[in-house]
Amino acid sequence: MDSEFNRKREFHNASARSDIEGASPARSSDELRRQDFRFDLPAELIAQQPPDRRGDSRLMVLDGASGALEDRRFDELPNLLHPGDLLVFNDTRVIPARLHGRKNSGGRVELLVERLLDQRRALVHLRASKPPKPGGVLAMDAGFSVTVLGRHDDLFEIRTESDQPLLSLLEQHGQIPLPPYIARPPTATDRDRYQTVYARDPGAVAAPTAGLHFDQALLDRLQDLGVAKTFITLHVGAGTFQPVRAERLTDHRMHAERIEVGEDACEQIRAARARGGRVIAVGTTAVRALESVCDERGTPQPQRAETRIFIYPGYRFRCVDALVTNFHLPESTLLMLVAAFAGREAIMNAYRHAVERRYRFFSYGDAMLIAHRSPR
Q1: Nearest-CA neighbor of 285 among 315, 324, 251, 252?
Q2: Domain extents in the chain
Q3: Span 98-175: which CATH code?
Q4: 8 A C-beta contact, residue 59 and residue 76
Q5: CA torsion 211→166→150→186, rounded to 10°?
Q6: Cβ(273)–Cβ(299) under 8 Å?
Q7: What is the CATH number of domain 2-94+191-371?
Q8: 271: which residues sit within 8 A by CB, 6+ positions away?
Q9: What is the pTM of this model?
Q10: Please, which residues bridge with residue 93 across strands?
């Protein structure tokens, strides 16, 4: 059984590195450029609001081996999965990470928490006409103050001077940090809808958006079907929206994000392998976490660490067999990851199809299922 699985995985990885039949020959990973992942996206296809109900969205199904496409509905997902499959969800919880205030000079300042360091300290992105110096005190509009302790590259370390933990202050006074391509202020609705129904561990400043399509009723249907589920944690940082500035992909340095993959998740993956089921990552964040902790044989090990893994065409997948994902920004690391999984030409063709068929893009948009093999 293991030899058959490994044979199929080698086919999976070979197809991920090649183009679909009839396309131009694949370029090597060393030759890939940022512009190889460019596509034209009409602005009106960028979803500005979530659908009326979770799961009330479209689902494109891409066969990773052949490049064949199907247009489905997301609530049809149970029809595309099989008893014994394992869904891996990212249970990170988005924190209301954006705060506004003033410097001592009176100038406006905006903080976006990137990472909580302890109950009072955090690393933040800081926007101001002139960056404050270490020791500077910022008066937040919510009535508490923070002190700037220092600067670490593009991030500032701050400490709250309140008796309340910083996370508690954020939950009371912070704004949900909607992505920059959503051109409106956050509303009370976003506190619920820009959050998965299974979110548990606070620490993300962006949602693992493939999970936004799942409601409890769908999770129950999948369970009744015999599809297992497990959870990992990757705290999504604001770096997920940073553009790739290097021309050559090999020159890009990935931002760091915290991951936690527990023993239960590792055991669930081993059990899925043993019964012939597929490991299906819900979102690129789940892919990055799983591929960070698996060895060459696809065996995961429990870890609590940081990952800077950058997955682009040429990468050899070790753990993930199928992927549920949203549609991503042109020239983004997330688009490069799904191109590694399905093949660049297959993905770019799928994105052209999505534009032609008027799919909704990005965080509140529609979804895609990419599968490389059927259960044994």
Answers
A1: 324
A2: 2-94+191-371, 98-175
A3: 2.40.10.240
A4: yes
A5: 50
A6: no
A7: 3.40.1780.10
A8: 86, 228
A9: 0.90
A10: 202
All residues at 6 or more sequence positions from 106 whose CB lies less than 8 Å from its CB, including other chains: none
Query: Can you give the three-state secondary structure of the chain, one letter per residue?
Result: CHHHHHHHHHHHHHHHHCCCCCCCCCCCHHHCEHHHHCCCCCHHHECCCCCCCCCCCEEEEEECCCCCEEEEEHHHHHHHCCCCCEEEEECEEECCCEEEEECCCCCEEEEEEEEECCCCEEEEEEEECCCCCCCCEEEECCCCEEEEEEEECCEEEEEECCCCCHHHHHHHHCECCCCCCCCCCCCHHHHHHCCCCCCCEEEECCCCHHHHHCCHHHHHHHHHHCCEEEEEEECCCHHHHCCCCCCEHHHCCCCCEEEEECHHHHHHHHHHHHHCCCEEEECHHHHHHHHHHECCCCCECCEEEEECCCCCCCCCCCCCCEEEEECCCCCCHHHHHHHHHHCHHHHHHHHHHHHHCCCCECCCCCEEEEECCCCC
Q: pLDDT digit of tens for each residue in the chain (376 aa)?
A: 333 334 334 434 433 333 322 233 345 667 899 999 999 999 999 999 999 999 999 999 999 888 899 999 999 999 999 999 999 999 999 999 999 999 988 999 999 999 999 999 999 999 999 989 999 999 999 999 999 999 998 899 999 999 999 999 999 999 999 999 999 999 999 999 999 999 999 999 999 999 999 999 999 999 999 999 999 999 999 888 888 999 999 999 998 899 999 999 999 999 999 999 999 999 999 999 999 999 988 899 999 999 999 999 999 999 999 999 999 999 999 999 999 999 999 999 999 999 999 999 999 999 999 987 555 5
Letter for the amino acid at 53?
R
Residues 6+ away with beta carbon under 8 Å from 102:
108, 109, 138, 139, 141
Number of other CB atoms surrounding residue 246 within 10 Å? 12
Tokens representing 136 are 């500077």
Q: Which two tokens stand for residue 304?
A: 């609590």
Half-sphere exposure of 213 toward its Cβ, with a 13 Å CA cutoff? 28
